[in-house]
Write a structure and sequence with these properties.
binds 2-(butylsulfanyl)adenosine; five-stranded antiparallel β-sheet; alpha+beta; 23 strands; D-amino Acid Aminotransferase, Chain A, domain 1; single chain; Helix Hairpins; five-stranded mixed β-sheet; 6 domains; OB fold (Dihydrolipoamide Acetyltransferase, E2P); 24 helices
Length: 654
């Protein structure tokens, strides 16, 4: 009979071995010996389920898949960093706060995803993604699959709350292996390690995440809601001591003036690192000086990212295709020999428009420079000069390459005005089904092209009249794929209003404007009745977008499309987290401790509340922080509801 003390000794041993393996790169036993230990722990837990400890390595993977990720407010907002691109800009950045001579900590900028992890009484309690900085998604189960991260901190007297923040990422080699496995399973490969990490972190089924090689480095520590340690480098040391993974390349430097040495030290080793970095981060070490610098709306003034220049590669133009976009604009697109730029294989690059193509003088067969910065769309930046004869420049077309209609010329745009042009229909539908629009899986370009060319669909609404027979009769479509498409279509009939507006592809109405319209009009019927005066009052809507919206809602085809979709079963989602506070007219006063005033104001506006600067008869709520001053007395005398910062945080989280 084994006793419980032995079980706990085994857990401690497993945690010691995992730390040596994952954090110190110093395996103390073979993989088989480690597996045998885990197996032994599992056996004991099978016999004594009442003993199972949350620190057991077996608790890293729970079997339950979730339906959707829970949204949770951050107790301290997660800001991102401002960027600089040269030493001069870096010095100027800190000079703005008179801190160009302050001691800094230099770190690498990991190309992953920000994460915030809370330990309560030493136990890993919750992990949240950054989300919009105020509210993140709960990914606790997935974070627990990262073996280098202790589930329980080995401290005698752990503080009640420890919050650590850092970056979840995937090693370059693990990413390649994962993509090979994806391809073997017939699944689409990930574009780069960052996307693979993002997809894995946001998986609803943590069993899948457990098989994805996620890793983590932490770079921020809060103890009981205040920055931990004496200063930033001390915080990193404390985390290391607690066996939390901290990147080994961080290093104190005397001042921003010395930053170039660190840059020159890291840049040559960049490609040999096991993980991708896209720059460096410089942070003021001293917490008092950090406070002195403060924050802008989005980022600290005491830390900045020094981004590496975009990556370049050379390739050859194989052909230049004329693409007809969803608004009829003809765009030259270069097909190039596939080349890897910044971790992504590029084989197709837009040349934007003819003027741009002529300016860069790009011709078929040319060797060209291809650049890709971060997540930005790849670009041809220039032609590699050569002495041999070249192909002639491609002439501006006069007729649509698809429907042969005569093209119109509007400043830089060459446009096909035939709304029934099959390429325009195809691209409109492709936009309609895309992820940020109606998010319909399984309907790619070639399937839509087939459906349009067979005259099975002419508008997005026609998608909902497709049936199993007509779909499964298409080449390369079996009954199973047909069912998948039909299911995805059915599921898409419950979109949010903003996604639906975006999906309609109104000219120049992107995601932000669609959100503004949805927030204001609340229903699609109301939007269809919009007038110029109301539209122009909205944030984001200028005269041109307003004219485009009015033209769109006046078109009979818009009303027809909407009616057909309602007939198919369209039902909008109730706005979540959006207009929940639309009834509130509020004023903020006094010093808030968790949120800054601009963050609080943004969070309220995003949920529909009206934020005012002065107390008036209109105002329904006063949010009072510390030392609220005369506004509090005035609000009380007028019977206005008074809320604390805590009340506000709860309202935001709802
Ligand atoms: S500090 C308040 N340090 O870069 C300061 N961020 O572009 C919070 N990142 O959102 C960030 N490496 O996801 C910091 N060593 C590092 C980092 C780092 C990568 C990411 C992080 C942040 C983004 C800003």
């Amino acid at each position: 009979m084994i006793d419980q003390a032995i079980y706990h000794q085994l857990l401690q041993e497993a945690s010691r071995l995992a730390n040596a393996y994952y954090n110190d790169d110093n395996p103390l036993v073979s993989d088989d010996e480690y597996d045998a230990l885990i197996h032994r722990i599992l056996q004991i837990e099978n016999n004594h389920p009442e003993w199972i400890s949350s620190s057991s390595p077996t608790q890293r993977i729970l079997a339950m898949a979730r339906d959707k990720a829970e949204k949770v407010a951050h107790s301290i907002p997660m800001r991102s960093l401002d960027n600089v691109f040269s030493l001069e800009q870096l010095i100027a950045f800190f000079k703005k706060s008179n801190l160009e001579k302050a001691e800094l900590v230099a770190e690498v900028k990991l190309d992953g995803l920000a994460i915030s992890i809370e330990y309560i009484n030493g136990h890993l309690n919750r992990a949240l993604t950054r989300g919009d900085g105020l509210v993140g998604e709960d990914v606790t189960q997935n974070i627990k699959t990262i073996r280098a991260l202790p589930l329980v901190l080995n401290l005698d007297n752990p503080p009640q709350s420890i919050l650590v923040r850092g970056e979840v990422y995937m090693n370059k080699a693990d990413f390649i292996t994962l993509n090979q496995a994806q391809e073997r399973k017939g699944l689409p490969p990930f574009a780069n390690p960052r996307n693979a990490a993002a997809g894995s972190l946001r998986q609803l089924d943590s069993q899948i995440t457990a098989n994805r090689p996620l890793r983590i480095f932490l770079y921020q520590l809060f103890i009981n809601n205040a920055p931990g340690g004496k200063n930033h480098s001390d915080a990193l040391e404390i985390m290391r001591k607690w066996h939390l993974p901290v990147n080994p390349l961080s290093q104190p430097i005397d001042s921003s003036i010395d930053a170039q040495n660190y840059y020159e030290h890291i840049l040559p080793v960049r490609d040999s690192l096991a993980y991708e970095i896209d720059g460096l981060v410089f942070k003021i070490n001293d917490y008092t000086q950090q406070d002195q610098a403060g924050y802008t709306q989005k980022s600290p003034k005491w830390a900045v990212a020094y981004k590496f220049p975009a990556k370049n590669a050379v390739s050859r133009v194989l052909s230049i295709e004329l693409q007809v976009g969803r608004t009829g604009v003809i765009t030259p697109v270069a097909h190039i020999e596939p080349v890897i730029v910044g971790g992504v294989t590029v084989s197709c690059v837009t040349l934007h428009n003819f003027e741009d193509m002529y300016k860069k003088d790009v011709r078929i067969n040319d060797q060209v420079w291809v650049k890709r910065a971060g997540d930005v769309i790849p670009e041809i930046t220039g032609v590699v000069p050569k002495n041999a004869p070249r192909q002639p420049l491609l002439a501006r077309p006069t007729h649509c390459p698809t429907c042969r209609q005569t093209l119109t010329f509007e400043s830089t745009f060459i446009r096909c005005t035939n709304l029934d042009c099959s390429d325009q229909i195809t691209r409109r539908i492709l936009h309609f089904v895309s992820r940020k629009a109606m998010n319909i899986d399984g309907l790619g370009l070639s399937l839509i092209q087939q459906l349009v060319s067979e005259n099975l669909i002419l508008s997005p609404a026609d998608l909902y009249s497709l049936n199993r027979d007509c779909l499964s009769n298409l080449p390369r479509m079996g009954k199973k794929s047909a069912d998948n498409v039909l299911n995805a279509l059915q599921q898409s009939l419950n979109p949010s209003l903003d996604a639906f507006i975006f999906a309609l592809g109104i000219r120049e109405v992107g995601i932000a404007a669609s959100k503004t319209l949805a927030n204001h009009f609340q229903t699609f019927d109301q939007l269809l009745k919009a007038d110029e005066k109301t539209l122009l009052q909205l944030h984001d809507i200028g005269p041109q977008i307003c004219a485009n919206i009015l033209a769109f809602i006046q078109m009979p085809s818009t009303h027809q499309l909407y009616q057909n979709m309602v007939f198919a079963g369209l039902k909008f989602k109730k706005p979540v987290n959006k207009q929940t506070l639309a009834h509130m007219h509020c004023v903020l006063t006094g010093k808030l401790s968790v949120l800054s005033r601009p963050d609080a104001s943004d969070a309220l506006s995003a949920r529909g509340a009206h934020v005012h600067t002065q107390i008036s008869a209109k105002v329904t709520h006063l949010i009072a922080g510390e030392s609220p001053g005369s506004k509090l007395a005035k609000a009380k005398s007028m019977g206005i509801t008074i809320l604390t910062e805590q009340d506000l945080l709860e309202l935001i989280a709802k």
